[in-house]
Design a protein that fits this description.
Blueprint lengths: L1 H17 L12 H17 L3 E10 L4 E13 L3 E3 L10 H24 L5 E5 L2 H6 L2 H8 L9 E6 H4 L3 H12 L3 E8 L6 H4 L6 E4 L1 H4 L6 H16 L3 E4 L5 H10 L3 E2 L10 H11 L20 E2 L5
Parallel strand pairs: 2-4, 4-5, 5-6, 6-7, 7-8, 8-9
Antiparallel strand pairs: 1-2, 1-9, 2-3, 2-10
C-alpha cells in the first residue's frame, strides 16, 4: 500500500512538472556539419550572440519541489536552428573553450538575478572542464559578477569524475579556492571514471552525480541498483548530496526515492529548456501567488520555492 501511494505521488509530481513543457532541441546535424561548426562557427556564434544557456530542472526527490537547474549550452543559429553541444564542441581548442566558459559563467550569474527578481532562489550549476579551472580566474570572475543578494546560494561547478581524479591534490586546492567565492564542486558522471573511494575522500564536493548508465534500469537491474545505492551512501557519508542523472522512467524515479537519493534530473522530469520556458515553468509551479507589490526580501530559507507536487 505504501509503495502504491509512493508511486501515485511520484506520478502526480511528474504530471505537474512536465505538463505542457517543450521537447528538447532537434537532433544535432550530421558529422560534416558538426566538423564545420567546430572549425569556425563558434567565434561567429559568440560575436553574433547566438549562444544561449538552456536549463534542465533538478528536483528535490524527497520534498517534491524544484530545487535548482543545470545550465547547458545551445546555439540558436538563424538558419540551422537549435544546435546541441555535440554538434559544435568536439575539436574545439582551449582558447575558444575558455571564451565559451567565461561567457557561460557570466550568463548563468545574470540569469540567477532574473530568476530571483521573479521570486525564485535556485541553485544553478554549470559544466566546466577541469583544466579551465586552472587557466581561467573562475573565482575572480564570479566574485566580480556574482549577485549582490545575501541569500544567493552560490554556484555549482560540475567536473567529470575522470577529469577530477587525475590530480586529486590539485583538484582539492582548486575546490578550496573556489569555495571562498561561493562556488562548490560537483563530481559529474560518477561511476564512469572508476575512481577509488580513498581518492574521493580527499576531495570536498557538494554533489555526487550518478552516471545515467547506472540510473537507467535501477528499478529492475540488481547491479545498477547496487551501484546507485553505494553511490548515494558514499555521498551522504561525505556530507554531500546524491543526484541521479538521466531519469527516464517512473519506476527508476521511485527507486531513487526509496534509496534515499536527494535530487534528480532527466527527460522524464523535464528536458532542457530556454530561459523563457524555464521562467514560465517556475511561475506556473510556484507554491504561492506572487503579490502585486513585493514585500521586503525574506531570508534565504523563506524564499518561495517552485512546488511540483499536486495536492494530495
Amino acid at each position: 500500500m505504501a509503495v502504491d501511494q509512493t508511486q501515485a505521488g511520484l506520478q502526480r509530481v511528474l504530471a505537474a512538472l512536465t505538463a505542457g513543457e517543450p521537447d528538447d532541441a532537434s537532433p544535432p546535424p550530421d558529422g560534416a556539419a558538426a566538423a564545420g561548426a567546430a572549425a569556425g562557427s563558434l567565434d561567429e556564434a559568440l560575436r553574433e550572440t547566438w549562444l544561449e544557456l538552456w536549463y534542465q530542472p533538478k528536483i528535490d526527490i524527497k520534498q517534491r519541489c524544484l530545487a535548482g537547474a543545470e545550465a547547458l549550452m545551445r546555439i540558436r543559429h538563424p538558419e540551422q536552428g537549435i544546435r546541441l553541444p555535440e554538434s559544435f564542441l568536439p575539436g574545439v581548442g582551449d582558447d575558444i573553450m575558455a571564451r565559451l566558459t567565461e561567457h557561460a559563467l557570466l550568463t548563468v550569474l545574470r540569469d540567477w538575478t532574473i530568476f530571483d527578481a521573479a521570486g525564485f532562489n535556485l541553485r544553478l550549476s554549470i559544466n566546466v572542464p577541469v583544466h579551465l579551472l586552472v587557466r581561467l580566474p573562475i573565482a575572480k570572475i564570479v566574485t566580480e559578477n556574482r549577485p549582490k543578494a545575501d541569500y544567493w546560494p552560490g554556484l555549482i561547478v560540475e567536473v567529470t569524475e575522470d577529469q577530477i581524479v587525475r590530480d586529486i591534490r590539485r583538484s582539492q586546492e582548486i575546490a578550496a579556492n573556489l569555495r571562498v567565492s561561493g562556488i562548490t564542486v560537483a563530481i559529474d558522471d560518477f561511476g564512469a571514471g572508476y575512481s577509488s573511494f580513498s581518492s574521493l575522500r580527499e576531495l570536498t564536493f557538494a554533489e555526487l552525480k550518478i552516471n545515467r548508465s547506472f540510473v537507467t534500469g535501477c528499478a529492475t537491474e540488481p547491479t545498477n541498483a547496487a551501484i546507485c545505492q553505494t553511490a548515494i551512501d558514499l555521498a551522504h557519508r561525505f556530507g554531500s548530496a546524491a543526484v541521479a542523472e538521466g531519469i527516464e522512467s517512473v519506476a527508476d524515479l521511485q527507486a531513487m526515492q526509496i534509496m534515499g537519493c536527494d535530487f534528480g534530473q532527466g527527460h522524464l522530469i523535464a528536458p532542457p529548456m530556454g530561459t523563457k520556458e524555464f521562467m514560465a515553468l517556475l511561475q506556473q509551479r510556484m507554491n504561492k501567488p506572487r503579490p502585486s507589490q513585493a514585500p521586503a526580501e525574506p531570508p534565504a530559507d523563506e524564499r518561495p520555492r517552485a512546488d511540483i507536487a499536486a495536492s494530495a
